């Protein structure tokens, strides 16, 4: 390949890179705009994240001076059932939650006191079915006087212990959290058991990991147990999320120039070794065939599953390259080029399906390719090859 043709190929590569940048940016803008709007729709239809505060017990020492009591014990059972829902280019991890909490507190004063018990709902943007708020033998019905809270006042004899029971069924999105208080507090005789029907899970930031984990056929049983904990951290669990097509397509597009660079390098080296050099216009059409993979994939994921979209885009792009080079050079050459395309375009792009392993897969592929090319060209007399090119150019 002459210097002039090599410069033309480099120019084509940079033009293709610009096209991929534009495509990736378009996907990001389209995804981010849609995500904000669709997130609001999902929250309206299903519910938002849950942050369940512990019930509070207070005695008013004076009109403006509340005294908060610690709970003597907490026994909480939470059942989480995952339901993945897709809107546009995003999957949303929605869930159903069944909450059942049994608490106790004691009037440690030497005289009878009137205490205010307050339950705060974990989210205002959802529904609550089978709701129960019971203090002793009294059932409290939400009156709507306090936004997001239900309160009642009870008279407790000195030294008496009062049970509190709270239960409901609701729906949420993304993660579920339980909060002891807004500041550092003491938690006594605490036990919470969360049962899931899904295998993969994570913990939100600034939360305490469970004391025990037990695998079940359906999912997990996660248990938190504390005798006398002092902390301002929450407890919680983050729902597993599916691979989101929008961010996946944008990352693949931004990385595409690296795949094309490896592919062009293979073609140039093979062409120099086998004397089957391609014209810059051939490289232009090949880069367009590479670009078609990402362009088709970015719009197919709007309507099909991401895996099916990936397979269709792979078949179309491979067919374009192999059929084209089969007519330009030879079918043997086109099959070698198709193999290189499958490695650099398809497998490298598929690595983005596994977050955290993309860089490793790409590095291994690049090293293996370097090793193969070094073995193929080890006996090549490069001085003779370039001498022939110079004579041809003359």
Folded structure, characterized:
This protein has 394 residues and is α+β, with helices and mostly antiparallel strands. It folds into 2 domains: 3-32 and 244-393, no CATH class; 47-238, Immunoglobulin-like (Sandwich). It has 7 helices and 15 strands. The strands form 3 sheets. An 8-stranded mixed β-sheet has the order 8-7-10-5-4-12-14-13, with helices on one face. Strands 3-2-6-9 form a 4-stranded antiparallel β-sheet, with no helix packed on it. A hairpin with a 2-residue loop joins strand 4 (73-87) and strand 5 (90-106). Helix 1 (3-45) packs antiparallel against helix 2 (245-274), helix 1 runs parallel beside helix 3 (280-300) and helix 2 (245-274) runs antiparallel to helix 3. It is elongated. The two termini are 13 Å apart. The model has no long low-confidence stretch (mean pLDDT 85).
Q: What is the topology, as strand order, of the major beta sheet?
A: 8-7-10-5-4-12-14-13
Kindly give the count of domains. 2
- Count all strands and give the number: 15
Structural Rg: 32 Å
What is the CATH architecture annotation of the largest domain?
Sandwich
Shape summary? elongated
Please report which band the strand proportion falls in: under 5%, 5-15%, 15-25%, 25-35%, 35-45% or over 45%: 25-35%
Q: Count of DSSP helices?
A: 7
Q: Helix content range of the residues, please?
A: 40-55%
CATH topology of the largest domain: Immunoglobulin-like
Structural class of the helix and strand makeup? alpha+beta
Q: Secondary-structure element order, as H and E? A: HEEEEEEEEEEEEEEEHHHHHH
Q: Sketch the major β-sheet.
A: 8 strands, mixed
Our measurement of the CA-to-CA distance between the termini, rounded to an integer number of angstroms, reads 13 Å
Q: Please mark out the parts with pLDDT under 50 across 5 or more consecutive residues, or reply none.
A: none
CATH class identity of the largest domain = Mainly Beta
């Amino acid at each position: 390949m002459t210097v002039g043709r090599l410069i033309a190929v480099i120019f084509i590569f940079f033009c293709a890179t610009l096209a991929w940048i534009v495509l990736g940016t378009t996907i990001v803008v389209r995804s981010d705009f849609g995500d904000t709007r669709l997130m609001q729709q999902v929250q309206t239809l299903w519910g938002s994240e849950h942050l369940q505060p512990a019930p509070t017990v207070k005695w008013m020492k004076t009109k403006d001076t509340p005294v908060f009591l610690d709970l003597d014990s907490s026994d909480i059972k939470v059942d989480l059932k995952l339901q993945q829902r897709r809107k546009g280019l995003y999957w949303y991890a929605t869930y159903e939650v069944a909450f059942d909490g049994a608490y106790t507190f004691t009037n440690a004063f030497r005289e009878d006191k009137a205490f205010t018990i307050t339950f705060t709902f974990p989210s205002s943007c959802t529904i609550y079915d089978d709701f129960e708020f019971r203090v002793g033998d009294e059932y409290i019905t939400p009156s709507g006087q306090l936004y997001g809270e239900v309160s009642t006042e009870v008279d407790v004899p000195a030294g008496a212990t009062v049970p509190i029971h709270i239960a409901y069924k609701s729906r949420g999105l993304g993660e579920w959290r339980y909060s002891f208080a807004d500041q550092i507090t003491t938690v006594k005789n605490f036990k919470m058991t969360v049962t899931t029907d899904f295998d993969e899970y994570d913990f939100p930031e600034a939360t305490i990991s469970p004391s025990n984990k037990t695998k079940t056929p359906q999912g997990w049983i996660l248990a938190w147990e504390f005798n006398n904990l002092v902390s301002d951290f929450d407890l919680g669990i983050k729902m597993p999320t599916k691979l989101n097509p929008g961010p996946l397509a944008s990352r693949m597009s931004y990385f595409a120039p690296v795949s094309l660079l490896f592919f062009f390098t293979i073609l140039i080296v093979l062409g120099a070794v086998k004397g089957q050099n391609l014209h810059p216009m051939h490289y232009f059409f090949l880069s367009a065939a590479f670009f078609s993979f990402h362009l088709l994939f970015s719009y197919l994921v709007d309507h099909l599953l991401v895996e099916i979209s990936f397979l269709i885009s792979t078949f179309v792009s491979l067919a374009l390259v192999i059929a084209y080079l089969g007519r330009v050079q030879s079918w043997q050459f086109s099959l070698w080029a198709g193999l290189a395309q499958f490695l650099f375009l398809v497998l490298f792009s598929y690595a983005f399906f596994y977050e955290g392993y993309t860089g490793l897969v790409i590095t291994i592929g690049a090293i293996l390719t370097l090793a193969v090319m070094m073995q193929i060209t080890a006996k090549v007399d490069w001085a003779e090859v370039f001498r022939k090119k110079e004579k041809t150019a003359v």
